[in-house]
Write a structure and sequence with these properties.
two-stranded antiparallel ribbon; 248 residues; 2 domains; Double Stranded RNA Binding Domain; 12% strand; Ribonuclease iii, N-terminal Endonuclease Domain, Chain A; mainly alpha; 10 helices
Length: 248
């Protein structure tokens, strides 16, 4: 038995004008088990055993993937004006990955709201990462279809392109490299380990900007901004490396 989909709207931060879109986004294909054509040919609209129309969420997953990709790319383009295309692509790939979407879905307890067949539920469908991640994409599509692109943007930035996720993405994909390189540079010259400190924090709570300074003895000092402390540390280390490379 799944939870009432309407209770999910508070977690999403969005109230649907058309509640059927929310229900459809949470309806897995397995719920088609009793439908006359068993959703043959990947059809999105089928007929159940009583002849009533019913829909599952696969087409919404397709749309949600496209909407999410665009909005995540737009957010990154605006947030990181100095990042090259390759870095933006890597960060976006992390944010829209099935693994990250499943993490978001688990945080929302999406699995508890899925409409599944009894067999799929018995096989552990409510905890399956692929089903949860796909449902998150479908939910983004549902918000877009119901409220338009700005409503979808709000959901994407509140749930997926968050400060925490950006910090993790930058740290995992690129953050450790400049810091490691700077530490190696310092060790090779028998200097103290680079020290990082936060100089300032600004912006609203959901979109903070951190300014971090790094110092390496008396040889080098650099500062940079980022959406998290780790991201700012990484950028500061990269700036410090440029300084020492130009000075040698």
């Amino acid at each position: 038995m799944s939870k009432d989909p309407q209770t999910l709207t508070q977690a999403l931060g969005y109230e649907f004008a058309d509640a059927s879109l929310l229900r459809r986004a949470l309806t897995h294909r397995s719920a088609c088990a009793g439908w006359k054509d068993a959703c043959a040919g990947q059809k999105d609209a089928c007929a159940d055993a009583r002849g009533a129309p019913a829909e599952h969420n696969e087409r919404m997953e397709f749309l949600g993937d496209a909407v999410l990709g665009f909005l995540a790319g737009d957010a990154l383009y605006r947030r990181f004006p100095d990042y090259p295309e390759g870095m933006l692509t890597k960060i976006r790939s992390f944010l829209v990955s099935g693994e990250n979407l499943a993490t978001v879905g688990r945080r929302l307890d999406v699995g508890a709201y899925l409409l599944l067949s009894k067999d799929e539920e018995a096989r552990g469908g409510r905890s399956r990462k692929s089903l949860i991640g796909n449902a998150v994409e479908a939910l983004i599509a549902a918000v877009y279809l119901d409220g338009g692109i700005e409503a979808a943007r709000g959901a994407v930035e509140a749930l997926i392109v968050t400060e925490a996720a950006l910090g993790e993405a930058v740290e995992n994909l690129a953050g450790s490299a400049p810091k490691s390189a700077l530490q190696e540079w310092a060790q090779a010259r028998k200097l103290d380990t680079p020290e990082y400190r936060v100089l300032a924090e600004s912006g609203p709570s959901h979109r903070r900007t951190f300014t971090v300074e790094v110092r390496v003895g008396r040889k080098c000092r650099a500062a940079a901004e980022g959406p998290s402390k780790k991201a700012a540390e990484s950028k500061a280390a990269a700036a410090a490396l440029k300084i020492v490379e130009n000075g040698e």
